[in-house]
Specification:
This protein is of the alpha/beta class and about 170 residues long. The chain has a domain at about 45-90 and about 125-170: Ribosomal protein L13 (Ribosomal Protein L13p, Chain: A, Alpha-Beta Complex). The chain has six helices and six strands. It has a four-stranded parallel sheet with strand order 5-2-1-6, covered by helices on one side. A two-stranded antiparallel sheet has the order 3-4. Helix 2 (about 55-65) links the parallel strand 1 and strand 2. Helix 2 packs across helix 5 and helix 4 (about 115-125) packs across helix 5 (about 125-135).
Length: about 170
């Protein structure tokens, strides 16, 4: 019996030595480094002079979302910066100036407000382009982050002078 007990103790000692050896190995190895997902964002310039709003919006929404990049992922923000100039000179076709209405509601009773496209073009022409691009993005948290990279100006003056743009020429 004494021999059997000593053999059991030897086995237990060997098992604990193996465990301690494994723990020493894990301490010596370096921790895994996290991959940094750095996205290279390009700057695009779109001139909206005499172009329909829908054509400008489709091009801008693809660029701002990053669908033109090979590393596109719908669940990640891989888009680019987009600057639209001359928003006051866009072309509106058909009877949209009088027929198209934009609505907003304050949340109170009788809080519904409507503005026609003509009134909005006179007061804030850049808002028309911004709204049309926003409606082409998915309605989630990611689009609220993406839309911040869109800059729309009513004339050809903008504050991004030191940026090298890729100019988009669309018909």
């Amino acid at each position: 019996m004494a021999i059997e007990q000593s053999l059991k103790l030897d086995k237990k000692i060997k098992k604990t030595e193996k465990k301690s050896d494994n723990s020493k190995l894990t301490k010596k190895t370096k921790p895994k480094e996290k991959k940094q997902n750095i996205v290279k964002r390009d700057w695009y310039l779109i001139d909206a002079t005499d172009k329909p709003v829908g054509r400008i919006s489709t091009v801008a929404s693809v660029l701002i979302r990053g669908k033109n990049n090979p590393n596109y992922d719908p669940s990640r923000d891989t888009g680019n910066h987009v600057v639209v100039i001359n928003a006051a000179k866009i072309k509106i076709t058909g009877n949209k100036l009088t027929d198209k209405k934009f609505y907003r509601h304050s949340g109170f009773v009788k809080g519904l407000r409507e503005v026609s496209l003509k009134e909005l073009m006179e007061s804030k022409p850049e808002e028309v382009v911004k709204r049309s691009i926003r409606m082409m993005l998915p309605k989630n948290k990611l689009s609220r982050k993406i839309i911040k990279r869109l800059k729309v100006y009513s004339d050809d003056q903008h504050i991004h002078k030191n940026v090298k743009f890729k100019v988009i020429e669309n018909e």
